[in-house]
Write a structure and sequence with these properties.
Blueprint lengths: L4 H9 L9 E2 L15 E2 L7 E5 L3 H12 L1 E2 L2 E6 L6 H7 L5 E6 L8 H6 L3 E5 L15 H13 L2 E5 L9 H7 L2 H18 L2 E4 L8 E2 L15 H18 L7 H22 L4 E6 L2 E4 H7 L2
Parallel strand pairs: 2-4, 3-5, 3-7, 5-6, 7-8, 9-11
Antiparallel strand pairs: 1-2, 9-10, 11-12
Helix pairs in contact: 5-7, 8-9
Length: about 300
Amino acid sequence: MSKNPREELKTALIDPANYSQPFKMHHHYFGPETIEFPIAYLSPDEHKTVAVVFFTEKAREIAQSVLAQQVGTCAYIVAPPDLATKEWVKQAIRHCRGGTIRYVYDGKLDNPLKILASVDELCVIADGSAPTFGSDLKLSEPVEDLLWLAVELGVECWCRNPYRWSNSEIESCLKKLGAPERVAAQKARRAAFTRELKTIRLDNDFGSSGLWDAQGRNLGYDLLDLPFPLVRRIAAWQKDFNDTEFPPSTSDDAWWDRHEREAIDIGKILQQALGSETVVTLFQGDDWISVDQYERTKE
């Protein structure tokens, strides 16, 4: 017995295999946006990660709608654990290629740089209805800062309200709310901390940032003042390690050669970004050596 034609059409519309080229609807604006989130169909060979941030039950309803439209993408959900339950996530990302959950406790959105370094697009969903005037976006300060940081770093970002309130002046609102000043203060603190480091080690460990101090303590991206493209590259290098080595290991000699070559290239760029006051080291043989020492061994 054949399926209902309507169900067959719905199945075909959400099957990424039916789209050989990336396809988007309603994507005419680059920057923070409060209109409908675009419907995206990705071809099987294209990879994209979309972050969806929400803190309330009403916002979760919009998040589910947003995720349903991201066919073939990788979802990155940022939400409290009581809202992003396993059952809800399983249902919400059923059309996605996969999903990552980052839990938020007590409204604290830690490590915004780590979030942005891991995604290609960002959608933040307001906590409630917004007024028809004024600058209140109905977002917590940490989410306002995340949104402004995305704007500064050039990460494509969107803003949604549960009641579909629209405001084309999101950047202006964020400025009135003090987000630029708060983000600048965070950057100043990162710069001060980075200047105090005499050594940064570059090495993988599962779930780490790939960066360590001289005492072997992991250094989060939000502690350091580094060029954002470099942070994204380090995060991708670390994610490749996580995805390949655990579990189970699918690495081979060719993979390790590529991975180590990438480590050397990242080390060189990292050393250039840090200058001469901080030494970047790599683990070679049975000891840590600087990038410059490594270069001399290859001459």
